[in-house]
Specification:
This protein has 386 residues and is an alpha/beta fold. Helices cover 40% and strands 11% of the residues. The chain has one domain: Spore Coat Polysaccharide Biosynthesis Protein SpsA, Chain A, CATH 3.90.550.10. The chain is globular. The protein binds guanosine-5'-triphosphate, 2-acetamido-2-deoxy-beta-D-glucopyranose and magnesium ion. Keywords: Signal, Transferase.
Amino acid sequence: MLTPMRYVFLVLAILISLHYIVSFSNENYGRATSLSQLKNKVVGSPATTAAPYKTPVSEDYRTPLNVTSGQGRKANAAIVILARNGDLNGVVSSMKQLEDRFNKQFHYPYVFLNEVPFEENFKKQVRVEDLTDSQVQYGLIPKEHWVQPDHIDEAKATESRNQMVKDNVIYGGSVPYRNMCRFNSGFFYRHELLKPFQYYWRVEPDVKFFCDLDYDPFLIMQDQNKMYGFTVSLFEYEATIPTLWKTVKEFIKLYPDLVEPDNAMQFISDDGGETYNRCHFWSNFEIGNLDLWRGEAYSKFFDFLDEKGGFYYERWGDAPVHSIGAALFAKKDQIHFFNDVGYRHEPFQHCPQGESHKRGKCWCDETQNFDYEWYSCLNKYDKMFE
Ligand SMILES: Nc1nc2c(ncn2[C@@H]2O[C@H](COP(=O)(O)OP(=O)(O)OP(=O)(O)O)[C@@H](O)[C@H]2O)c(=O)[nH]1
Ligand SMILES: *[C@@H]1O[C@H](CO)[C@@H](O)[C@H](O)[C@H]1NC(C)=O
Ligand SMILES: [Mg+2]
């Protein structure tokens, strides 16, 4: 028999354990310094039904430009891959999948970037003949876009790197990693080879593309006036960004007029901008409008962050920097979730569900889907449109 007393007791017990589960997971997250740490602490995803993301139906998005007949359309876009010579195998793997799932139909050109010249061996294997019919270009990153700037106090930077190594922060001791994060945050879109383009798709070595994409995501961006597209979002490690939000708030105070009134602050802050909830779009995948980064607001924003030195005194990632930029300077409905793109970058993946899974003939396991895991931020994105 469930007497009233027992009933009250039972409800209390449930509430207490719920509270415990929630605070336990948040606390773990706050302490995490690398993805592998998190991976072993997955609490299990609730069986939430995915939000009804619509796949574009118009044929306008499905007819790649036929150069011979002039039929169809194409956006002014490039696929951008920042890589080292040593990333060759991973690059080939990513690129082959992207070609098979999408680009062999759509023929977007590739731009490879590196701070040292690509070796002949790299170019031969990735070259047009074997992997793609599209144009492939190789760009050298100018030194001033890559190396630690002079205004950084090296003694202070070294000290902070050493501390991060002690604290087990992933890539905490690495200068090249910091160069890469700063380059992706503020320079890739200024590269000579990217100047002619308006849209880009960022691809990394060793990622997976699970589904056939039979429509052109760049045309979605263009026709629907989107600024930023993602497939996975999650929390950032606190240890890499101790003063980032403080800096962002200073910027907003200095330049309130640069902030878009219809912004996506709700995605990055749970208290109207007082604190950062650490949500960010996982920037190893991005489909974006380069105008977002080239515009006055983001340019000033990046310069402001760069001046503060957090790319080196801390380990600010391009993911939170881009995400905060997109959230503040684009309208919230200009940020697009590419639900139909099945995608994996270790150790997380977005696997399209239901109709979308079938339509794309996806080869990922539908139950292996990051969207509504407890450390995903997709629910915060959804909330903005409720
Ligand atoms: N040219 C060049 N590219 C780099 C360098 N470091 C990283 N990259 C590239 O920058 C991108 C991000 O680097 P990753 O090492 O994948 O960083 P991550 O995704 O945060 O970490 P992982 O979990 O290890 O993949 C990838 O496209 C790399 O190929 C570098 O020193 N030089
Ligand atoms: C492109 O157009 C030409 C000329 O109309 C046609 O012969 C060819 O089959 C078309 N190619 C494709 C892939 O549709
Ligand atoms: Mg990576």
